[in-house]
Amino acid sequence: MEGTFDATALYPLPFTRSQNLLDRNIYYERSKPQYEQVPASYFISAKANGAYGDASHDDTQALNTLFQYAAAKGLIAYLDAGYYMVSNTVHIPPNARIVGEALASIIMGTGPNFGDVSKPRPVVQVGLPGDVGQIEWSDTIVSTRGPTAGAILIQYNLFAPETPSGMWDVHTRIGGFAGTYLQVPDCPAIKGTNTVNPRCLAAYMSFHVTAFAGGLFTENCWFWVADHDLEDQKYQRVSIFAGRGVLVEAQRGRIWLSASGSEHHVLYQYQLSNTRDVYIGHAQTEQAYFQPMPVAQYPFPLAPALNDPNFQQDCQNDPDPGCNMGWGMRILNSSNVAVILPSENFEHSGHESWNEVSRIDYSGHPDHGASRWDGFGSG
């Protein structure tokens, strides 16, 4: 790949930074709020207001009531440490402020409402399509329990026309820890077979920034599908299937994914489609360890409405097994995209490229401007 490489980056094309992504001529950033100046009376505890957080009771209604009330009254919803089991979507309304306790606050979707891959449903939904406003959300994990092939862990719809919303240390963690029913005894590592245990179909997508959304800053948000069991003394591998990683479709853009990671999803780790003004900084990707067996086109059916990669079509005449492995990053028909890459090995021509860490594809449109690729190698 041709371009200018200096001590920090490879610049394949002249690139003017989008003013929509800048603050005082540098890329926008905002530190996680600590709320140290907020009186204790402004915090409202989940467990003191009807939620159990005990990995057993259904906390769907309690969390919905809490978030709605806190947003309406200008309070901060405090998720005490615990497993908040939810059987249906939890809604975060505009103007909500939510903080967890030391990354020990887990919202866990489970049950038949999340089980149909043909009818995907968010576990947590931020705003409804058309909503305008801002949120602050930090120190929370969103997860699933058991087979939830239709679960979209976080769906983000909110549009913030001025100061962006913020998400800090909000992670999706799928399987590989106690209480998920997605550990070594449930989903042992696949070895040399295309057979998939349906009980290990654990998510449809981790994070969807929809076409309605815009104005969102995220920092240190990690979207992880377990490749090993964190509770196992031997740290054994597991084979857990989640269809898609991070999908950004925000037509009005102003999306910052800073210090981000997306790992072990089947089809791709990041996909930007029909969006604009997006910054992805210091991202990390890893493919699913079991690929290319099963191949990336299996077991999740193609969803053309989401511009899914069509591996069956693209790889039918390609004998290289690397073709049928999930993408690290795909950028489709998008403009003003600034990316700091996770790997030195990438291709910017729109042709397929892969390596054992990541596959990168930029299918630009001639009148959609350019993307900037800053390559920082990772071992």
Automatic annotation (TrEMBL):
GO-annotated molecular function: polygalacturonase activity
Cited InterPro entries: Pectin_lyas_fold (IPR012334), Pectin_lyase_fold/virulence (IPR011050), QRT3-like (IPR039279), RHGA/B-epi-like_pectate_lyase (IPR024535)
Domain Rhamnogalacturonase A/B/Epimerase-like pectate lyase: 43-114
Short name of any one Pfam family annotated for the protein: Pect-lyase_RHGA_epim
Name assigned to this protein: Rhamnogalacturonase A/B/Epimerase-like pectate lyase domain-containing protein
Source species: Fusarium musae
